[in-house]
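Exam review. A common question shows you a sequence with its structure tokens and asks you to describe the fold in words. Practice with the pair below. Do the first one on your own.
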Amino acid sequence: MPGDGAGTARMRLFPAAARCTAGVFFLCLVLVPAAAAVQVSPSPVPAPVLTGALLGGGQFDLRQLHGRPVLVHFWASFCTPCLEELPSLQRLAARCPDLAVVTVAADRGSPAPVREVVRRLALTLPVVLAPEPALRRRWEVNVLPVTYLLDREHRLRVRVLGARRWDGAADRAWLAEVMGTCGNG
């Protein structure tokens, strides 16, 4: 897409995944099943560029985390499943210090609702603001919540559509198996 850093050719991150058009973006939010759908990439590709303003000030650049596995979580303040999932991501980050957990707020417009959620949930995770659609397009975010697991070389390994509990022993064991991180803790 011109101007969004993705180039002119559209690379499909997860080619077999069904996609929603921008016109039905919010409808897709309602249709996401209660249980998360896990999509494993058959051949991992490099993650798209992820840069942006941080809610607390400053700039975020995914490249600064090179060499660490990363969980990138897209959410919005108006998305109930997103808000229910965020505390488990906070606990996961505390239990798995080798895994970088980064959240991306997909709210359009003012960051005030995002700031209120962060305050209410006492989140300390980094929150990248993504009010414009370019970042969401690059990452093929068509439903919320959506989470990507990147390996140490920042290749897309797994996409999780829908909410998931991230902080239980079984979840950490799954992360250890899929990502080679967070197996004990």
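Now try the second one, then compare your answer with the model answer below.
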Amino acid sequence: MLYMGYSSAMEENVCKRGDVFIQIVSVMVLYGSMALISYYDIKKKKIYNSILIFMILIYFSLFIINSLFFDSNISLKENIISAIVAFLLFFCMKIANPTGIGMGDVKLAFVLGLYLGYGVLEVIGISMLCLCIYTMLGNGTGKKGVPYAPFVLFSMLLQNFFFT
């Protein structure tokens, strides 16, 4: 069927390219924000709410754009469930050991659940394993604490390159 001079195959191709564009922007925002969060977590031992809110706003903006203009392959229900599960997992760890994990890490787990869906569980597992290895080597001792966000960024890279 021709519409405005385009065939339906061309329309499908445009939709696929638009979907890929949304995915590229999403990945850029995710990794760029995680790099910034990691930097502040290392330097100041703080994860800023403004960065997390920015990530949430971008996520929902991209979801709306993808739903309105392209064939959406993002499952909002799956991602929200993943975000809640990750949040509750980290919140329980926060309650169990209040000095062991910060609320910034709890909120970060929620945001990562939105972006990664069920893949957030792999990222959490890999990052916890890396954190355990780091502390067993004697690097994480002392009252200063260990920034968690760099381990999350590293585990996201590992998951992206080796497990997908």
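Model answer, second protein: The CA atoms of residues 19 and 70 lie 6 Å apart. The first helix runs from residue 8 to 44. Full marks require stating both points clearly.
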